[in-house]
C-alpha cells in the first residue's frame, strides 16, 4: 500500500513537471531596470530574475532597462530598452527537433545561438518581424526595428552579424539573402532587402551575454540606425 502511494506521488510530481516544461517558453536570467510580461487576464506583470515566461507571452522592457532571456538550451536573447518581444510556441520538425522562433514587435535585441547544442537537438531558430524572417543555426546577430517616421509607412528593419551567418528573407518571398560575419542589411519600409555590406562600427555594440560581465549596450542604437540609412546601398 505504501509503495503504491509512493508511486502515485512520483507520478503526480512527474506530471506536474511535464506540464510546467510543456508550457515553458523561456526563463529570465538577468534583468536591469523595469520590464513586464503578459498579457495575463489582459494585464502585464513585472518580471523578476528566474521568472518563467510561457509561450505566447510578450516581454516589454522600459527605458534604460534590458532583459537576458534563456530560450531552450542553446539560445540566449538580450532584449534592449524600450522593446517588445513575443515568444512563439515552437513547431516540431521531421527529426523531432523544435523549430523555435521569436517575434520582435518593437525596439531591438541581440541573439546568441550555440551551434553544437542546436545540432545535437535537431533544433532550428528564427527571429521574425512584421516584414522579414531571420534564420540561423549558430551565430550572434543583432536586429532592430525603427520608430515610424511616417504614420503611413511601414517600419524599417535592420540587422547585423557578429559571428556565423544569418539567412534573411521577406515574409511571403522565397528569395534569401545571406548575411555573414561583420555584415549588415536594412529593409526600408518593408521593401527590398539591401545588399549585405561590412559595418565596422557594429563591433562597438555590446554583444556580451555573460552574467559576470557588463552586458548593457551603451552605443546609441537610434543614432547608429540613422547613420546606416545615410549609406547608399545601390
Please describe the structure with a list of short key phrases separated by commas or semicolons:
234 residues; Jelly Rolls; 16% helix
Structure description:
This protein has 234 residues and is of the alpha+beta class. 16% of the residues lie in helices and 44% in strands. The protein contains 3 helices and 17 strands. The chain has helices spanning 2-22, 115-121, 221-229, and strands at residues 24-32, 35-40, 43-46, 52-54, 58-61, 66-71, 75-79, 84-92, 98-106, 108-113, 124-128, 132-136, 139-145, 157-170, 177-180, 183-187, 197-198. The chain has a 17-stranded mixed beta sheet that branches. The radius of gyration is 19 Å and the shape is globular. The N and C termini lie far apart (78 Å).
Amino acid at each position: 500500500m505504501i509503495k503504491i502511494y509512493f508511486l502515485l506521488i512520483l507520478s503526480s510530481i512527474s506530471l506536474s513537471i511535464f506540464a510546467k516544461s510543456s508550457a515553458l517558453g523561456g526563463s529570465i536570467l538577468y534583468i536591469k531596470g523595469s520590464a513586464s510580461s503578459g498579457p495575463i487576464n489582459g494585464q502585464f506583470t513585472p518580471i523578476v530574475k528566474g521568472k518563467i515566461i510561457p509561450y505566447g507571452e510578450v516581454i516589454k522592457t522600459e527605458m534604460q532597462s534590458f532583459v537576458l532571456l534563456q530560450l531552450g538550451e542553446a539560445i540566449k536573447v538580450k532584449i534592449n530598452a524600450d522593446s517588445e518581444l513575443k515568444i512563439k510556441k515552437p513547431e516540431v520538425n521531421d527529426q523531432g527537433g523544435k523549430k523555435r522562433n521569436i517575434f520582435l514587435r518593437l525596439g531591438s535585441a541581440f541573439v546568441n545561438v550555440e551551434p553544437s547544442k542546436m545540432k545535437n537537438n535537431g533544433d532550428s531558430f528564427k527571429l521574425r518581424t512584421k516584414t522579414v524572417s531571420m534564420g540561423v543555426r549558430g551565430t550572434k546577430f543583432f536586429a532592430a526595428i525603427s520608430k515610424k517616421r511616417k504614420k503611413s509607412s511601414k517600419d524599417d528593419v535592420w540587422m547585423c552579424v557578429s559571428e556565423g551567418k544569418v539567412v534573411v528573407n521577406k515574409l511571403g518571398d522565397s528569395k534569401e539573402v545571406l548575411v555573414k560575419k561583420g555584415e549588415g542589411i536594412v529593409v526600408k519600409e518593408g521593401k527590398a532587402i539591401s545588399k549585405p555590406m561590412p559595418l565596422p562600427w557594429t563591433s562597438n555594440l555590446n554583444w556580451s551575454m555573460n552574467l559576470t560581465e557588463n552586458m548593457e549596450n551603451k552605443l546609441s542604437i537610434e543614432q547608429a540606425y540613422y547613420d546606416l540609412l545615410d549609406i547608399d546601398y545601390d
